[in-house]
Amino acid sequence: MQTCKSGSLALRRKNAVWYLFMLPSIVGIVLFMAYPIIEVVRLSFFKSNGTVETFNGLANFKYILGNEAFRKSIFNTFFITFFQLLISVPVGFLIALAINSIVKGKNFLKTLFFIPYVTPAIAAGTLFLFILHPNGILNQFLGWFGLPAVSWLENGMTARCGAVLMGIWRSLGFNIIIFLAYLQTISPEYYEAAYVDGCSRWQAHCHITFPQMKGAFSFLIIMGWINGMQRFTDVYALGGMTGSPARSLHTIVGFIYERGFGNYEFGIASAASCVLFVLILLFTLLNLRFTREEKPTRRKNL
């Protein structure tokens, strides 16, 4: 009996050591993740300038939902994210197919495409200021085809298109890497059997490749929406705090930054942050609902 008690005590001490190793991470999560979230939710019900707080109820939420600048920031965020995903995901898949089919130079091409993804956002935004300039590289490229120069950052629609191009340039490498990882899990024997049965390359992709890539598409669409809804730094480099021209580059996070750190309206900024959290949660649940794989049902033996 005494031996069992001593063994149990030794096991508890051993477990206590592991809890001590976990303690710094737990403290960090509580201080830098849990507490800020709770504080944002609390501040959303107050009128606050960082020093003086007054309980405001739901007035902050009523204000932002009726505010034209906030509604425009939602539209800009959705527009840029939607068209970025619409182009970057299929193009990334096609490039991944091409890279996966070659024998030499795979690592070089993967590195080449992945460089923009690891480029700091502010550096990417500054680079695109030169690319989208009236005398920049993009207009020179269009001039080779006889197209007129475009003042990309002087018109709302073209400015959004410029932000879409920048998003595609930055996210394409990540999409390619994810697609390649999935492609390399498909056994070559499947394709060999398909070709023996008389399938063309296109038919092999339709019946083998595309079904196996459903998880990759689901992951990239979900992560693309989450990252797109939080987009700020690179767009801020193009349009500044107010998302010039005419707030066409003003994203939801840009609105939060402007109201919080520009106007010191922390209650309104916190309410906008809560709305952003709900939007991200809804889009994540919708994407999971429409892209999850159905589990096969088992028949009961009669």
What layout of secondary structure does this protein have?
Blueprint: H1 2-43, E1 46-48, E2 53-55, H2 59-65, H3 68-101, H4 106-118, H5 121-131, H6 137-144, H7 156-183, H8 188-196, H9 201-212, H10 214-229, H11 233-239, H12 252-262, H13 266-291
Antiparallel strand pairs: 1-2
Helix pairs in contact: 1-13, 2-13, 3-7, 3-10, 3-12, 4-7, 5-11, 7-10, 10-13, 12-13
- Strand elements, count: 2
Order of helices and strands: HEEHHHHHHHHHHHH
The biggest beta sheet reads: 2 strands, antiparallel
Widest sheet, order of strands = 1-2
The N- to C-terminal Cα distance equals 52 Å
Mean pLDDT: 87
Strand residue percentage? under 5%
Helix content: over 70%
- Gyration radius (Cα, Å) is 25 Å
Structural class: mainly alpha
Total helical elements: 13
Shape: globular
Low-confidence stretches: 296-302
Describe the structure using short key phrases.
single chain, 302 residues, mainly alpha, two-stranded antiparallel ribbon, 74% helix, globular, disordered C terminus
Q: Can you describe this structure?
A:
This protein is mostly helical and 302 residues long. The protein is 74% helix and 2% strand. It contains 13 helices and two strands. The chain has helices at residues 2-43, 59-65, 68-101, 106-118, 121-131, 137-144, 156-183, 188-196, 201-212, 214-229, 233-239, 252-262, 266-291; strands at 46-48, 53-55. The protein has a two-stranded antiparallel sheet. β1 and β2 form a beta hairpin. α1 packs across α13, α4 (106-118) crosses α7 and α7 runs antiparallel to α10 (214-229). 27% of the residues are buried. The model is unreliable at 296-302 (pLDDT under 50).
